[in-house]
Amino acid sequence: MKLTWFKKGTIYQIYPRSFNDSNNDGVGDLRGVIEKLDYIQSLNVDIIWLSPIFSSPNDDNGYDISDYREIMPEFGTMEDFDELLKGIHDRGMRLILDLVANHCSDEHMWFEEAKKSKDSPYRDYFHWHKPADDGGPPNNWKSFFGGSAWEWDEASGEYYLHLFTKKQPDLNWENPKVREEIYDAMRFWLDKGVDGFRMDVIPLISKPKGYPDAPEVGFRKIIEEVYANGPTVHKYLNEMNEKVISKYDAFSLAEGVGINETKAGLYVNTDRKELDMLYHFDILECTIVNGKFEEVSPFDLVQMKRIFKKWREAVHNTGWIANAMGNHDFARMVSRFGNDKEYHSESAKMLITMLATQNGTLNIYQGDEIGMTNITLETIEEVKDVQSLNFYEENLINSKFSEEMALEMINKEGRDNARTPVQWNDEINGGFSIVDPWLKSNPNSEIINVKHQDNDPNSILNFYRSLLKTRKEHDVFVFGEFEEIEFNSPNLYIYKKTLENRSIIVALNFTESDQVFKASGVANEYKVLINNYADLNTKENELILRPYQGLVLDID
Ligand code: TEU
Ligand code: CA
Questions:
Q1: Has residue 420 been placed in a domain?
Q2: Domain membership flag for residue 545
Q3: Both 233 and 88 in a single domain?
Q4: Same domain membership, residue 146 and residue 98
Q5: DSSP state letters, 521-542
Q6: Is 370 in contact with 453 (CB distance < 8 Å)?
Q7: Which letter does DSSP use for residue 515 in this model?
Q8: Which ligand 1 atom is the nearest neighbour of the CA of 145?
Q9: What count of Cα atoms within 13 Å lies in the side-chain half-sphere of residue 137?
């Protein structure tokens, strides 16, 4: 019987480059994480997900791996890693690593060898294709980061496939040797004692046979219908589970790109023995219509409730998901879904109250526990993210938007928003480093930082700590049966959760004005478990919710 310790857990994602710089070279590192382990433990989180720490030329900050068994020198040594892992386990937490197995770096030995000759034993580790009749790429596939997904290789007269940058060639999972290489790398880390993996773009590993053209639909649809969910994906995930994961007390968290709720069960239903859970993109992309830097839609609370509902129902009693509203690929949660100015603290606390009371594993991202916000980058030189830079470059050529507009869009949606250094104190660069960090530190570190919030009982940080603790003590938060109340309200998100004879009500105000909720019962007799305001405003059976107020009430 597989252990399910991860279901109640909270995952804390660390993006090491931006977490803490221990040797003042401007880049976060493993010793920087070691220095902060007591802090991380103080959050009451259970599992640390470390974004890639392996050797990499950093075209995509480690998501382009050149050696799966080596630590990136900028981040430290294997000894540092061993010490980190021990430090995490000593504190009763677990560690999952980021497995980037859909592609590697073009500087990985496999690709370097593959390029040398069509007869190389490594040639078939990748997807090579002769040109189309006109000499162009074999099909119309676009890379996630702009331009064609095929790159021309002059020497061999063939194209290779890269769904991300051209320095991230896709691995050919149809080749059993590739699969064994990846499984071996996984075993290497599991034998060291790591507790599992977050699996980068795992739904993309199997490509449609014959590389057919993608239909003329939005990019999101293309991902769902063409790039993800390929014909052999389940066979390989099942194999990976059988040969690797199931042999350890380990779990897998899939990045559910291109998986919609109708397909979710195929990946995470327990009886299928594939993956343990996934985080989907529907909340993360709920304001993105087709793709980043294209059309955006306004935030719509009812739509968000629908998304939570359909996912909850999709895996009900059969599988499991994780819930996230931010990570290293998206703008900051409080800036997107809350109000990072007048109601910074209130809205940050309300949002995490919502996420912590959804059914599923809670997944939070570094810095969100202090309400870190988006940053304004003044010039394109300050932008570091390859996705944003490629968009900017393409736009210079097709002039779809003015340069100012393009930079504005990058500031609104770009991934650098989530990658600015963690703000530890009010000193230079927020205490991350005494030298200029690789990506500009947010000037608001003078106000928003761990040190201030640590000393303030009403801070976002201390709210996270007590919310996560309460969540651990009450199974109903995670496992309760969900009952929507006032589902069609565009202002309030209210739900009741019941487990055995325990019931709670969660009441969340998504607006900047007071909102009235008519409770069935004497509102002021409810016991307050969580409240992001000092008091509870009630009138007979009415609950008056303040701007961005978030409550969890015990109604036993
Ligand atoms: O992300 C995959 C992915 O789908 C994102 O590129 C996402 O679409 C985009 O950032 C949102 O606009 C994973 C990693 O999380 C990301 O950091 C990597 O760049 C990417 O895979 C390639 O490994
Ligand atoms: Ca460093």
A1: no
A2: yes
A3: yes
A4: no
A5: S-GGGSEEEEESSSS-EEETTE
A6: yes
A7: E
A8: 6
A9: 18
**Predicted confidence (pLDDT) at residue 374 exceeds the cutoff of 80:** yes
Q: How far is the CA of 19 from the centre of ligand 2 (A)?
A: 10
According to DSSP H, which parts of 30-175 are helical?
A: 30-35, 37-42, 78-90, 109-116
- Statement to judge: residues 229 and 275 lie in one domain: yes
Domain span including residue 91: 10-104+176-377+443-466
- The pLDDT score that the predictor gives to residue 1 is 42
Residue 470, Cβ density class (10 Å: 0-12 exposed, 13-18 middle, ≥19 buried): middle
| Number of C-beta neighbours around residue 219 at 10 A | 17
pLDDT at 323: 98
Q: What is the CATH number of the domain that holds 500?
A: 2.60.40.1180
Average pLDDT taken over every residue of the chain: 96
How many domains does the chain contain in total?
Answer: 3
Known active-site residue 200: yes
CATH of the domain at 351: 3.20.20.80
Quote the pTM value. Answer: 0.98
User: How high is the pLDDT of residue 524?
Assistant: 65
Same domain, 250 and 264: yes
pLDDT of 83: 98
Catalytic residue among 29, 80, 106, 255: 255
pLDDT digit string (tens) for 6-31? 899 999 999 999 999 999 999 999 99
How far CA 237 is from CA of 138, 178, 204, in Å, comes to: 28, 14, 11
The reply to whether 23 and 126 lie within a common domain is no
pLDDT of residue 5: 79
237-259 mean pLDDT: 97
Query: What single-letter amino acid sits at 306?
Result: R
Residue 54 lies in a domain: yes
Q: Are residues 532 and 448 in the same domain?
A: no
Q: What is the mean pLDDT of residues 58-63?
A: 98
Is residue 268 classed as helix, strand or coil in its secondary structure? helix
**Which ipTM value was assigned to this complex?**
0.97
- Residue 156, CB-side half-sphere exposure with 13 Å CA sphere: 19
Examine the pLDDT at 310 and tell me if it is beyond 90.
yes
Among 168, 171, 329, 410, say which to mutate for ligand 1: greatest number of ligand atoms within 8 Å of CB: 329
Summarised one tens digit per residue, pLDDT across range 167-194 is 999 999 999 999 999 999 999 999 999 9
In a domain, 148, yes or no: yes
Query: Mean pLDDT, to the nearest integer, of 319-338?
Result: 98
- Secondary structure (DSSP) of 432-487: S-SS--SSPPPGGGGTS-HHHHHT-TTSHHHHHHHHHHHHHH-THHHHPEEEEEST
Q: How far is the CA of 556 from the centre of ligand 1 (A)?
A: 43
Q: What is the pLDDT of residues 461-495, one digit of tens each?
A: 999 999 999 999 999 999 999 999 999 999 999 99
Task: Determine the Cα–Cα distance for residues 376 and 407; give it in Å rounded to an integer.
Answer: 9
Quick one: DSSP state of residue 429?
G
